[in-house]
């Protein structure tokens, strides 16, 4: 029997999974991410957790195909991270360090890209080989899968779709320093921002309140038929759907998978995205499918495990 | 000694090249594209040309690594063409047909994608593995190379960057039926259109004349310092540069290679593109390089040959 590990390193916790060669989750658990001291303890902590788990289950290192790891930063194909704000890392040869600490093969990827791979393998993208995952969380992340493999890009920054410019007139500044980034409209914080702007001058009756203009509150109100909330969702969906039409013209995917906290709104979210997408999509791309992500927090460890499993 | 063929099928002529295994062009020639009768003669004509060339040079079929072919249509990874307006083809299993006609292995690709591969191999993209080729001709085509390979896409429509929507306010219709496509501003015909619109209400002195508002006339005037022409080039460059910033956010390329008839304007063209690109590019993409294509009409046969040569 052979095994592998999938590891999803976040700014607060590290999620780990022990997988069978066939892809079943044998066990999953978490450890704390120790970001102090430039995150020097993170990879040693991961190595200790993995070594401990092998001992606990009586698994020999020869039985382990490798360790796949997702990290919140651009990562090159060689496993080099050129700094991660969330982890405190500066330049780090993460692959080399973890391989030396464990004596096992390690493959690294960007967390959004790795989660996309997980959704293709076991989630919303099952059955497809050309997929764009759009993650609507605090920010907007993306993961592009071409012919079953992650599109890493030259600097490990492939799929940074949250920083496509969708509004040349924007005066507010994005976290990246740019103006008019998709993230400013389609992330959870972006949706709140659109709702807040609308509520400043709103005179119609609405169940939205200035105390709670979260993305969840907006989509809950949409489900109640609230006109003001529907206008906010329409504005968000227009920016996102049009940007997705541009992504499709470039990449010609078979499927979009929508994940992240905002996607908990469910199918209603897709309706606000598909209409503007279809209005602007190139004819060759109009048969693309729209799916919700299904793996939730497990997408990261699944995709990480898939990094070291053969097709 | 081993050989391969690179074939570039256009709507008027088929360009053919005989290449050595090492990649040198041994001979190149053209035949007429017979598009009548749904283009039924095109592949038989190609097969005859190849068989004749082998006989002429005394090359055995065992010495031929294969035939690479670029066609003006989307092509799947399996060599299926689902119709080509320029060739008169309906559905065609082009790979199977040419292999049966020649007894040789054939690989097919979209002509813009194949030209991009050629430019990476021997032209403006030499030394790079992640490249976006932008072809500014009658239309705007694109070819995306990821890790040295063509991004084909699910329907063979990868890299259709000319149909990214760059202006939601546009009322004129693109050839594809859409509105505000990049092609409407950055192709040779798009540049003429921008110039014509500007000249309608222009009162300043300009060396541009309503009789010749071709892209070449515009860039010739730009080189003379003509204020009106510079404004047309600036408008075109803004649309293109901003769209390229969005492509870069998605794909994280190392280099853009600009080809097609409009690129004959030379380095001055790049200056109009790079400035708006830098204004809108995500920080991780600001080190991307801008190059002019160098192969001209040979890009197609070179890229086609590269389809059947190993890395």
TrEMBL record, chains A, B:
One Pfam annotation reads ROK
**Which GO molecular function annotations are given, in alphabetical order?**
ATP binding; glucokinase activity
Q: Which domain of life is it from?
A: Bacteria
Q: What is this protein called?
A: Glucokinase
The record's InterPro entries line, in alphabetical order, gives:
ATPase_NBD, ROK, ROK_cs, ROK_glcA
Q: Name one GO biological process term.
A: glycolytic process
Gene Ontology CC annotation, any one: cytoplasm
Query: Which organism does this sequence originate in?
Result: Mediterraneibacter faecis
């Amino acid at each position: 029997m052979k095994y592998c590990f999938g590891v999803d390193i976040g700014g607060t916790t590290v999620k780990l999974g022990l997988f069978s060669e066939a892809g079943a989750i044998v066990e999953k658990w978490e450890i704390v991410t120790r970001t102090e001291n430039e995150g020097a303890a993170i990879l040693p902590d991961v190595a200790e957790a993995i070594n401990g788990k092998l001992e606990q289950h009586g698994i020999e290192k020869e039985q382990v195909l490798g360790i796949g790891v997702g990290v919140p930063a651009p990562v090159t194909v060689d496993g080099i991270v050129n700094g991660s704000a969330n982890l405190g890392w500066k330049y780090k040869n993460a692959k080399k360090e973890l391989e030396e600490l464990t004596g096992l093969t390690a493959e690294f990827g960007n967390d959004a890209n790795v989660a996309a791979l997980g959704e293709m393998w076991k989630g919303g993208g099952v059955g497809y080989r050309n997929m764009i995952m759009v993650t609507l969380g605090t920010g907007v992340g993306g993961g592009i899968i071409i012919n079953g493999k992650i599109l890493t890009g030259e600097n490990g920054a492939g799929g940074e779709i949250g920083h496509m410019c969708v509004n040349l007139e924007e005066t507010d500044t994005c976290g990246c320093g740019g103006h008019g980034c998709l993230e400013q409209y389609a992330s959870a914080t972006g949706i709140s921002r659109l709702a807040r702007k609308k509520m400043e001058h709103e005179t119609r009756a609405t169940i939205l309140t200035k105390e709670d203009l979260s993305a969840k509150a907006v989509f809950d109100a949409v489900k109640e038929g609230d006109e003001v909330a529907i206008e906010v969702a329409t504005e968000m969906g227009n920016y996102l759907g049009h940007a997705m039409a541009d992504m499709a013209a470039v990449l010609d995917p078979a499927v979009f998978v929508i994940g992240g906290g905002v996607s908990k709104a469910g199918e209603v979210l897709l309706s606000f995205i598909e209409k503007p997408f279809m209005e602007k999509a190139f004819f060759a791309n109009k048969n693309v499918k729209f799916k919700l992500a299904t793996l939730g927090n497990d997408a990261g460890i699944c995709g990480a495990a898939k990094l070291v499993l053969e097709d």
